[in-house]
Specification:
This protein has about 260 residues and is of the alpha/beta class. It is about 50% helix and about 15% strand. It has one domain. It holds the Pfam family HpcH_HpaI.
Length: about 260
Amino acid sequence: MTRLRDGINGGTLGTWIKLSSPESVEIMAHAGFDFVVIDLEHTTLDLGAASTHIAMARALGVDPLVRVPDHGLSVIQRVLDAGAAGVVVPHVDTVQQARAVVRATCFPPRGDRGSGGTSRAGRWGQLPRADYLEYGNEQALCVVQLESEVAIRNTREILALDGIGAAFVGTADLSMSMGVAAGSDEVDRLVASALAAAAAAGVPIGTASATSDQARAALARGYDYVVVSNDTSILAGGGRAIVNALKEPVAERVAR
Protein backbone atom coordinates (compact mmCIF):
# COMPACT_ATOMS: atom_id res chain seq x y z
CA MET A 1 0.00 0.00 0.00
CA THR A 2 2.11 2.83 -1.30
CA ARG A 3 -0.03 5.68 0.01
CA LEU A 4 0.58 4.82 3.66
CA ARG A 5 4.06 3.42 3.12
CA ASP A 6 5.24 6.62 1.45
CA GLY A 7 3.27 9.03 3.62
CA ILE A 8 1.59 11.28 1.05
CA ASN A 9 2.13 15.02 1.48
CA GLY A 10 -0.89 16.62 3.06
CA GLY A 11 -2.06 13.42 4.74
CA THR A 12 -3.87 10.31 3.65
CA LEU A 13 -7.48 9.63 4.61
CA GLY A 14 -9.23 6.38 5.38
CA THR A 15 -12.36 5.26 7.18
CA TRP A 16 -13.47 2.17 9.09
CA ILE A 17 -15.85 -0.31 7.48
CA LYS A 18 -18.14 -1.95 10.04
CA LEU A 19 -21.21 -2.94 8.01
CA SER A 20 -21.38 -6.14 5.97
CA SER A 21 -22.90 -4.61 2.82
CA PRO A 22 -20.31 -4.09 0.04
CA GLU A 23 -22.07 -0.82 -0.76
CA SER A 24 -20.30 0.65 2.28
CA VAL A 25 -16.94 0.29 0.57
CA GLU A 26 -18.38 1.43 -2.76
CA ILE A 27 -19.80 4.61 -1.21
CA MET A 28 -16.55 5.43 0.61
CA ALA A 29 -14.55 4.88 -2.56
CA HIS A 30 -16.77 7.26 -4.52
CA ALA A 31 -16.55 9.73 -1.63
CA GLY A 32 -12.81 9.94 -2.26
CA PHE A 33 -11.18 8.11 0.66
CA ASP A 34 -7.68 6.83 -0.09
CA PHE A 35 -8.17 3.59 1.83
CA VAL A 36 -10.63 1.67 3.97
CA VAL A 37 -10.01 -0.40 7.08
CA ILE A 38 -12.30 -3.41 7.29
CA ASP A 39 -12.80 -3.95 11.01
CA LEU A 40 -12.77 -7.53 12.28
CA GLU A 41 -11.89 -6.48 15.84
CA HIS A 42 -14.96 -4.51 16.93
CA THR A 43 -17.68 -5.84 14.63
CA THR A 44 -19.43 -9.09 13.76
CA LEU A 45 -17.97 -9.09 10.23
CA ASP A 46 -16.69 -12.49 9.13
CA LEU A 47 -14.02 -13.47 6.63
CA GLY A 48 -16.57 -13.84 3.84
CA ALA A 49 -17.71 -10.24 4.26
CA ALA A 50 -14.10 -9.10 4.49
CA SER A 51 -13.27 -10.87 1.24
CA THR A 52 -16.19 -9.17 -0.54
CA HIS A 53 -15.16 -5.77 0.83
CA ILE A 54 -11.58 -6.33 -0.31
CA ALA A 55 -12.72 -7.22 -3.83
CA MET A 56 -14.94 -4.14 -4.03
CA ALA A 57 -12.14 -1.85 -2.83
CA ARG A 58 -9.66 -3.35 -5.27
CA ALA A 59 -12.09 -2.94 -8.15
CA LEU A 60 -12.57 0.75 -7.33
CA GLY A 61 -8.88 1.56 -6.79
CA VAL A 62 -9.08 1.99 -3.01
CA ASP A 63 -6.52 0.30 -0.76
CA PRO A 64 -8.19 -2.26 1.55
CA LEU A 65 -6.63 -2.83 4.96
CA VAL A 66 -8.10 -5.30 7.42
CA ARG A 67 -7.96 -4.79 11.17
CA VAL A 68 -7.62 -8.33 12.46
CA PRO A 69 -9.05 -9.35 15.85
CA ASP A 70 -5.73 -10.41 17.38
CA HIS A 71 -2.18 -11.54 16.57
CA GLY A 72 -3.19 -14.94 15.24
CA LEU A 73 -1.38 -16.18 12.13
CA SER A 74 -4.49 -17.86 10.70
CA VAL A 75 -6.64 -14.75 10.20
CA ILE A 76 -3.69 -12.60 9.08
CA GLN A 77 -2.74 -15.17 6.46
CA ARG A 78 -6.31 -15.58 5.20
CA VAL A 79 -7.09 -11.87 4.78
CA LEU A 80 -3.79 -11.28 2.99
CA ASP A 81 -4.55 -14.15 0.61
CA ALA A 82 -8.01 -12.61 0.15
CA GLY A 83 -6.18 -9.63 -1.36
CA ALA A 84 -5.88 -7.17 1.54
CA ALA A 85 -3.25 -4.50 1.01
CA GLY A 86 -2.19 -5.09 4.59
CA VAL A 87 -3.28 -5.75 8.14
CA VAL A 88 -3.79 -3.48 11.13
CA VAL A 89 -2.91 -5.46 14.25
CA PRO A 90 -4.31 -4.33 17.62
CA HIS A 91 -2.50 -4.18 20.96
CA VAL A 92 1.10 -4.62 19.86
CA ASP A 93 2.91 -3.73 23.07
CA THR A 94 6.38 -5.27 22.83
CA VAL A 95 9.17 -5.88 20.35
CA GLN A 96 8.56 -9.62 20.68
CA GLN A 97 4.90 -9.22 19.74
CA ALA A 98 5.77 -6.94 16.84
CA ARG A 99 8.33 -9.42 15.53
CA ALA A 100 5.76 -12.23 15.65
CA VAL A 101 3.21 -10.10 13.81
CA VAL A 102 5.73 -9.28 11.06
CA ARG A 103 6.53 -12.97 10.70
CA ALA A 104 2.81 -13.67 10.28
CA THR A 105 2.69 -11.34 7.27
CA CYS A 106 5.82 -12.65 5.53
CA PHE A 107 6.77 -15.88 3.79
CA PRO A 108 9.76 -18.02 4.85
CA PRO A 109 12.55 -17.48 5.54
CA ARG A 110 11.45 -14.00 6.69
CA GLY A 111 8.27 -15.26 8.29
CA ASP A 112 5.78 -18.03 8.88
CA ARG A 113 3.04 -17.29 6.33
CA GLY A 114 2.11 -20.27 4.19
CA SER A 115 1.93 -20.15 0.40
CA GLY A 116 -1.55 -19.81 -1.11
CA GLY A 117 -0.97 -18.61 -4.64
CA THR A 118 -4.31 -19.84 -5.96
CA SER A 119 -6.05 -17.15 -3.87
CA ARG A 120 -7.04 -13.62 -4.92
CA ALA A 121 -3.61 -12.40 -3.81
CA GLY A 122 -2.12 -14.76 -6.40
CA ARG A 123 -4.74 -13.82 -9.02
CA TRP A 124 -6.26 -17.25 -8.59
CA GLY A 125 -3.05 -18.99 -9.56
CA GLN A 126 -2.33 -16.80 -12.58
CA LEU A 127 0.31 -14.60 -10.92
CA PRO A 128 3.84 -15.99 -11.16
CA ARG A 129 4.84 -17.53 -7.85
CA ALA A 130 7.86 -15.23 -7.54
CA ASP A 131 5.60 -12.16 -7.87
CA TYR A 132 3.12 -13.53 -5.33
CA LEU A 133 5.91 -14.11 -2.82
CA GLU A 134 7.58 -10.77 -3.55
CA TYR A 135 4.34 -8.85 -2.97
CA GLY A 136 3.71 -10.65 0.31
CA ASN A 137 7.20 -9.99 1.59
CA GLU A 138 7.75 -6.46 0.27
CA GLN A 139 4.40 -4.79 -0.31
CA ALA A 140 1.77 -6.17 2.09
CA LEU A 141 1.60 -3.59 4.85
CA CYS A 142 1.96 -4.53 8.51
CA VAL A 143 0.47 -1.78 10.67
CA VAL A 144 0.97 -2.08 14.42
CA GLN A 145 -1.50 -0.46 16.79
CA LEU A 146 0.19 1.23 19.75
CA GLU A 147 -2.50 1.63 22.37
CA SER A 148 -0.89 1.25 25.80
CA GLU A 149 1.75 3.10 27.75
CA VAL A 150 4.04 0.09 27.38
CA ALA A 151 3.62 0.14 23.61
CA ILE A 152 4.37 3.85 23.33
CA ARG A 153 7.49 3.49 25.44
CA ASN A 154 8.64 0.67 23.14
CA THR A 155 7.85 2.58 19.95
CA ARG A 156 11.44 3.21 18.86
CA GLU A 157 12.41 -0.44 19.19
CA ILE A 158 9.18 -1.66 17.56
CA LEU A 159 9.50 0.65 14.55
CA ALA A 160 13.15 -0.30 14.09
CA LEU A 161 12.07 -3.82 13.09
CA ASP A 162 12.31 -4.71 9.43
CA GLY A 163 8.81 -5.34 8.10
CA ILE A 164 6.85 -2.78 10.10
CA GLY A 165 5.11 -0.72 7.43
CA ALA A 166 3.25 1.82 9.56
CA ALA A 167 2.17 2.60 13.11
CA PHE A 168 -1.25 3.55 14.44
CA VAL A 169 -1.76 5.30 17.79
CA GLY A 170 -5.01 4.27 19.47
CA THR A 171 -5.53 7.18 21.87
CA ALA A 172 -8.88 5.91 23.16
CA ASP A 173 -7.46 2.63 24.45
CA LEU A 174 -4.24 4.37 25.49
CA SER A 175 -6.04 6.84 27.76
CA MET A 176 -8.38 4.14 29.07
CA SER A 177 -5.47 1.87 29.97
CA MET A 178 -3.90 4.77 31.88
CA GLY A 179 -7.12 5.74 33.62
CA VAL A 180 -6.99 9.32 32.33
CA ALA A 181 -8.93 11.45 29.85
CA ALA A 182 -8.02 11.22 26.15
CA GLY A 183 -6.93 14.85 26.05
CA SER A 184 -4.83 14.75 29.21
CA ASP A 185 -1.25 15.97 29.40
CA GLU A 186 -0.03 12.42 30.12
CA VAL A 187 -1.53 11.13 26.88
CA ASP A 188 -0.32 14.17 24.96
CA ARG A 189 3.29 13.58 26.04
CA LEU A 190 3.15 9.92 25.02
CA VAL A 191 1.66 10.80 21.65
CA ALA A 192 4.41 13.36 21.08
CA SER A 193 7.06 10.73 21.83
CA ALA A 194 5.43 8.27 19.40
CA LEU A 195 5.33 10.90 16.65
CA ALA A 196 8.99 11.72 17.23
CA ALA A 197 9.95 8.04 17.16
CA ALA A 198 8.07 7.44 13.91
CA ALA A 199 9.66 10.47 12.28
CA ALA A 200 13.12 9.30 13.33
CA ALA A 201 12.44 5.81 11.98
CA GLY A 202 10.90 7.10 8.74
CA VAL A 203 7.76 5.05 9.38
CA PRO A 204 4.31 6.54 8.61
CA ILE A 205 2.16 6.97 11.70
CA GLY A 206 -1.55 7.57 11.95
CA THR A 207 -4.50 7.71 14.30
CA ALA A 208 -8.29 7.70 14.30
CA SER A 209 -10.64 10.66 14.54
CA ALA A 210 -14.38 11.00 14.87
CA THR A 211 -14.74 14.25 12.94
CA SER A 212 -13.09 16.17 10.11
CA ASP A 213 -11.96 18.88 12.55
CA GLN A 214 -10.20 16.26 14.68
CA ALA A 215 -8.62 14.76 11.58
CA ARG A 216 -7.39 18.17 10.44
CA ALA A 217 -5.82 18.77 13.86
CA ALA A 218 -4.15 15.33 13.81
CA LEU A 219 -2.60 15.96 10.39
CA ALA A 220 -1.44 19.39 11.51
CA ARG A 221 0.22 17.78 14.51
CA GLY A 222 2.30 15.52 12.29
CA TYR A 223 0.32 12.34 11.68
CA ASP A 224 0.79 10.99 8.16
CA TYR A 225 -2.69 9.50 7.85
CA VAL A 226 -5.99 9.51 9.70
CA VAL A 227 -8.84 7.00 9.81
CA VAL A 228 -11.86 9.30 9.94
CA SER A 229 -15.18 8.11 11.36
CA ASN A 230 -16.78 4.92 10.00
CA ASP A 231 -19.66 3.84 7.81
CA THR A 232 -22.09 3.32 10.69
CA SER A 233 -21.39 6.70 12.33
CA ILE A 234 -21.56 8.52 8.99
CA LEU A 235 -24.95 6.92 8.30
CA ALA A 236 -26.21 7.60 11.82
CA GLY A 237 -24.96 11.19 11.80
CA GLY A 238 -26.56 11.91 8.44
CA GLY A 239 -29.88 10.45 9.57
CA ARG A 240 -29.82 12.35 12.84
CA ALA A 241 -29.01 15.63 11.08
CA ILE A 242 -32.03 15.24 8.79
CA VAL A 243 -34.39 14.41 11.65
CA ASN A 244 -33.09 17.23 13.84
CA ALA A 245 -33.32 19.75 11.00
CA LEU A 246 -36.93 18.85 10.28
CA LYS A 247 -38.29 18.15 13.74
CA GLU A 248 -36.85 21.13 15.58
CA PRO A 249 -38.72 23.75 13.48
CA VAL A 250 -41.91 21.72 13.89
CA ALA A 251 -41.43 21.61 17.65
CA GLU A 252 -40.83 25.36 17.72
CA ARG A 253 -44.05 26.04 15.77
CA VAL A 254 -46.05 23.80 18.09
CA ALA A 255 -44.58 25.57 21.12
CA ARG A 256 -45.70 28.92 19.75
